[in-house]
Each structure stands twice: as C-alpha cells, then as structure tokens.
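Protein modeling request. Please complete all fields; requests missing the sequence field cannot be processed.
Requester role: graduate student
Desired output: 3D structure, token encoding
Chains: 1
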Amino acid sequence: MDAHTAATRYIGPTGLDPYMNRFFNMLPKLGISVAGSRLLAVRGRKSGEWRTTLVNVLTIDDTRYLVAPRGHTQWVRNLRVAGTGELRLGRKSETFTATELPDADKIPVLRAYLDRWGWEVGRFFEGVTKDATDAELTDIAPGFPVFVLH
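Delivered output (150 residues):
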C-alpha cells in the first residue's frame, strides 16, 4: 500500500452494512454492550454537533485504545480535530481525551485488536490476521488509525 493510499484509506458501508450499523448502534443506547462495544460520540469538526458510531474499545495492560478498521473515517477525522470525545453505554457517559499513535507504535495494538475482534472486522484488514508478521502489520499501519485514550 503506497503512502497516499494508506493516508486516505476508507472502506465505506456496503450492502447490508447501513442496516446492521443502525441496529448495532442502537444497542449501546439501550445499555447493551456486544464484546465490549461502546457508542463513540465526537463533535463534528465542521458542524460542532455530536456524531456517534459504534466502536470496540481495546484494553492492553490498563491502557485503552480505539482502532479504526475502516480507515480514515469521519469519526477519525473528527477526533483528530476535537481531541476529546465520549464513550457511552446506556445512561453512562465517560469523557476522554485521545492521542493518535504513530505508525511504528501501532503493531502490538493492531495484533491485539485482530486477536480480539478479527472475526468481526477481519474483512477490513484485507487478508492480514493476528498471525501476520511485524513487517506485514507495519505495511498496513498507515491505513489504520489508532488512538490511545486518557
């Protein structure tokens, strides 16, 4: 993957995805977490309005991460600008600040993410699995934004 493709990589919803997304985005609003999922809320970079989407929060050694398996999505672009957001589940809301990881630091996070949720998001990783070499993960890292939550 060349640098430009990686920096702009985005896989949008297709087929049944919009309907499934709508259904699964409703679950955290009802207080139901699927495999640790939360509703991510981030202010829009242009509108200032809250934008929400379902995310998987990965925890490694008490540090929490958000990984964008679809690439440079709207929530990624909004979080880069806002630097803060909320994780919501039912009536509970947790405010956080986020720092984007440099590509070189993503390797163990991407591997752990694929280990935990590869069954769900593997199709977005274009054949790369938790068993990929460090070199393979390094090659794809620019196309998969990762944020550490504080």
